[in-house]
From TrEMBL, chains A, B, C:
GO terms for molecular function: lyase activity. InterPro entries: HotDog_dom_sf, MC_hydratase, MCH/BMMD, Thiol_ester_hydratase_Rv0216. This is Uncharacterized protein. It comes from Halarcobacter ebronensis. SUPFAM superfamilies: Thioesterase/thiol ester dehydrase-isomerase (SSF54637).
Amino acid sequence: MGNFFEDFFMGQEIVHPLPRTISEGDVSLYIAFTGSRFALHSSDIVAKELGYEKRPIDDILMFHLTFGKSVQDISLNAIANLGYAEIRFPTSVYVGDTVSMSSTVIGLKENSNGKSGVVYVHSIGKNQRDEEVLNFKRWVMVHKRDTQTLSKISEIPSFKEATPILEKINIPKIDEVNTDATGGKFFFEDYEVGERLNHPEGITIDNSDHTLATKLYQNNAKVHFNDHMMKSSPMGQRLMYGGIIISIARAISFNGLQNAQWVYAINSGAHCNPTYAGDTIYAYTEILEKLEHSREDIGLLRLRTIAVKNQASSEIEQPKDEEGKYLKNVVLDLDYTVIIPKKKTGK
Amino acid sequence: MGNFFEDFFMGQEIVHPLPRTISEGDVSLYIAFTGSRFALHSSDIVAKELGYEKRPIDDILMFHLTFGKSVQDISLNAIANLGYAEIRFPTSVYVGDTVSMSSTVIGLKENSNGKSGVVYVHSIGKNQRDEEVLNFKRWVMVHKRDTQTLSKISEIPSFKEATPILEKINIPKIDEVNTDATGGKFFFEDYEVGERLNHPEGITIDNSDHTLATKLYQNNAKVHFNDHMMKSSPMGQRLMYGGIIISIARAISFNGLQNAQWVYAINSGAHCNPTYAGDTIYAYTEILEKLEHSREDIGLLRLRTIAVKNQASSEIEQPKDEEGKYLKNVVLDLDYTVIIPKKKTGK
Amino acid sequence: MGNFFEDFFMGQEIVHPLPRTISEGDVSLYIAFTGSRFALHSSDIVAKELGYEKRPIDDILMFHLTFGKSVQDISLNAIANLGYAEIRFPTSVYVGDTVSMSSTVIGLKENSNGKSGVVYVHSIGKNQRDEEVLNFKRWVMVHKRDTQTLSKISEIPSFKEATPILEKINIPKIDEVNTDATGGKFFFEDYEVGERLNHPEGITIDNSDHTLATKLYQNNAKVHFNDHMMKSSPMGQRLMYGGIIISIARAISFNGLQNAQWVYAINSGAHCNPTYAGDTIYAYTEILEKLEHSREDIGLLRLRTIAVKNQASSEIEQPKDEEGKYLKNVVLDLDYTVIIPKKKTGK
């Protein structure tokens, strides 16, 4: 039934149950849910041209399948999923791999009202060879069991503003990118800091789409599935899992970022407003930073993708109003870093 | 267009067409439809720890894929699917296996009005090596072609109240259950006859969910797919395939029965009330019986799972009212037997 | 953002990006979308009995996965998809194969109003061994960029009324068809020219069904996904991808054509009226022609399948009214050719 604030302690290690074997079915369903077209993940030919034996799993799909495991222990009864930071995807995952996850409690802060507290965890996902495939921190607000006794615990960890870029990047050396296959002509050198890409597509999400996806990820947070319960909540209906919006925004960003086929890191993200069945998601992307790496074949782009509901992304100038509050149609503010080959690799 | 009562005769053998190869796509879709989290079926690591080479197919998914084959010959135009009994799952099925089915007519009873009759069949599903993977009996009421001539046939077979437990149970010997992986700490010894588990989750089913599932099973009973036809029926809309509810109830029962990963038998079941798109399914389970087996590593639990629509299962005390009639929100009364390891296997 | 009329020139060769590896997930999803029951595509046992190593991909699924690639370059901003012709499926495709596509411009006709023009292309799909798997022609009306300057170009190619039947047909020699497995007793000799089959089934399509399918095919034509945009169009809602209707009609035609498991060609097709979520699709088929082939084990049937929405197909006598206009419920008029074994192969 989910853990309370008192069930956590500093340094606690939690092995999340339910290791998950990833299958071809998951990959196809992910394409069906998102319409994603990044060639590396849907074409063995492109994957081989890029130095892989076969197509790896989309990083965001892997995130959902792995992350879903931690919901039961960490956030099943969360009052709020407050944030995440320093998300990294250290190693590619393939069909047939089995991912599992564990977390360490790295921070605890009791709220002054005595009713709840914030739990900070560092979660690590591994494959069946014990290699790290996912690494991130997140914090959630949970209820206290005993609202009378105050522990006054307040150990708050600090987070890096952006996920550090490691010396070693685990993707094959890229000799040549076949732009006839990837569908895009732009490489690292073609982007400028401050540039904005208005992705033209909009995708409408229905109830079956998002509930099938969230069930596939075995993410059992009730708010996403149980319409009967949600009807008597202030929302009045099922809330879409935030990961759905990340996936759709990433899929839409294909248009303009076709060769940025690797998500290196997610630095931070805000689910600014809720999304419900019937909403149409649009997105635009700003280039925040261009990062050189010791590898000569690739560079990294730090991006900010803003997802908007029921309004073309080109109509949104800034995601926040003058008081710094997110506009009511803005549903995602995602700061992340992608890997993109350099121009000389283009064919 | 489906068979009439006169098309059946005692001892008749019917080979149902359309053997079905089971794929990774079927497995992923089943998880997406139900949110099922039984580790044996979604993790090769857990399957190997339990003595398997790889994860077997969920027994209920296999049931749907195999059962679907008999609809065309037996129940396409059934007036009512009256019941089933003695369902057994003798051998595990894996991705790549091909299942097929045949039936023998074991009973025929003409109704006194001369308009219809009841057909009883014994159906057997086999894999590509001719090994039995499914074995059950069921009975359906079908129309007569000729309502004027009376045959007065009345050969009614008898059914066992519960599927017999065989001496040989075809699952690997279980040495150790990794409860960090399966997500549950409870074993055979931890359950008591009469105990009741209120599973907390509720899952809402939409039209695409249930029609995609039923089409995947190639179950072509019209009432599930054809909204145009159903709009002029007393139901006014598509009726959900009863198997959907069995699957959802089984998936929800994970919470409390995490280590009961094998369905040994279904003893009987009643689809007490119809379910439609938009309904939210809840469930609770009673422990009816604890059955020892000559194998020392496992025991069997006979369970009764009651599924309820649009009402938390904890709010239902008894599924029937004082007159023995099912409450209007009760949608499934399932009597089945699961295999669960004994305590000494726990880690 | 899609090409304009001026972006095309005679003889132009266009390599469509995004080669697509076909997976078991795609196959299962296709069955879930359509309920298709042709045994060759869902059973390895039947495939082996018919001389295959394993089950090949349904021809129409392969068409959608391959065709989807050309949308971005050819028809993303099409005013209208005017027609297609001479569609052939030269070689079977299997799970694990990667399909890609290229097109040659074979015709250009500027419209007299100067605002638009028609582009004719010849498109060829290949597998990873460079073998042709799909070959077709189609024409679309696209906007001109410059509506002031007239090119007066008018090079219109001619199309054959029916896709020619080649001497070599790339399917294994058929020794025996196990009708207990395929579910149908009828062979080439059993059909008569002029005969009409009223397929009894009707399948209702919901929004998630058709959008999941179209996204799976990575067909990114906006009209199918973006409800927000479509609400301000005359249609007022998302338009279903025409390929969905072809697939449903083909799946429904199983009933009566169980042994016609190969689509040899599509000669022409008209999407007579739009279909939207909630519509129920019915279909009937006329036998237009019986074609002998030098191979003695098979013959070909040229068929006309008419799909109808929200009305039983048996209620439609002719798809067009007296003035030659399609009735408002008729949604597809498909002229295609299937391969069917001859009677002596039946068992």
